[in-house]
Amino acid sequence: MDAGRLKTIGILILLCVNLAFGGILLMERLDSAEGAAHTRTELVEVMAGLGIQVSAEQIPGALDLPVCAVSRDRDLEDRLVGTLLGETEGLDQGGNIRYYENENGWAWCRSGGNFEIMVLSGGGSLETRLTEGGIRAQREGESYVCLVRDVEVFNCRFSLSQRSGGIYISGRCILGEPVPGEKPESTDPATLLLRFYDLIRDAGGVFSRIEELRTGYVLSVSASGMVLDPVWRMETDGGIWYLDLREDRLISLGL
Length: 255
Prior knowledge:
The protein is α+β, with helices and mostly antiparallel strands. Helix content is 31%, strand content 35%.
C-alpha cells in the first residue's frame, strides 16, 4: 500500500475519532441541560408546596462569580474628573478626600467610591464622557447602576440632576480594578433558593410570589479595604432582599 493511501486512511481514522469525541461531548451537554431544566421544574414544584410562586425561567443558573478585592485608584479618579471638567489637579483634604476645581466645575472623591461632581460647562454627552472616564454603568429608572465585567453592583449607583446652572452627579462608583479571589462554597441554584427562603422567613419576611431573581455584586467597605461580594437579589410581592453568598446572610442595602 502506497504512502498516499496510508495517509488518507490515517486522516479518516482521526476524523472518526474526533466525531466520536464530539458526539460524546454533545450528549454530555444535552444531558446537563436536560438535568438543569428538570431540576428547575422540581424546584418550582417545591416552592409551590411552600406557598411561593416562581417560574422556572426566573431561576438563575449555577453562580460563577468570585469574591473580588478592590483598591482605590487615584489615577482613575483623576481620569474621571479630567474627562468631565478638563485638566485639574486633585487636592488632598485629609480623611481620604480629594477635591478638584476649575472653571468648568468641581468634584469631591471620597473613600469607598463615593463622589460628587458639578459640571458647569463642557460639550458632548455626559453618559459618553462618564464611560470615557472609566465608569461602566447601565440606566435603571432615574439612576445608573455600575457594572463590573457586565455584572451589576447593586449598591453602586449614581444619579444626574440639574443644579445651579450645571449638571450635578453624585453617588458611588467602582474606580479600581477588581482582583478575583475565591468563589462561594454554595453555588447550586436549588440550595441557594431554599436557603434564601428560610432566611427571609426567619427574619419575619412575608411573600407569596417571586417576581425576579438576579445575581450580582454588593460592595462592602471596611477599614481593611473594599470587597465585591457575590449576591442574589430577590424581588417579591413583599419586598426586595439580598443574600450575601460569602457569609450566607441577608443584607439590607437601604436602596
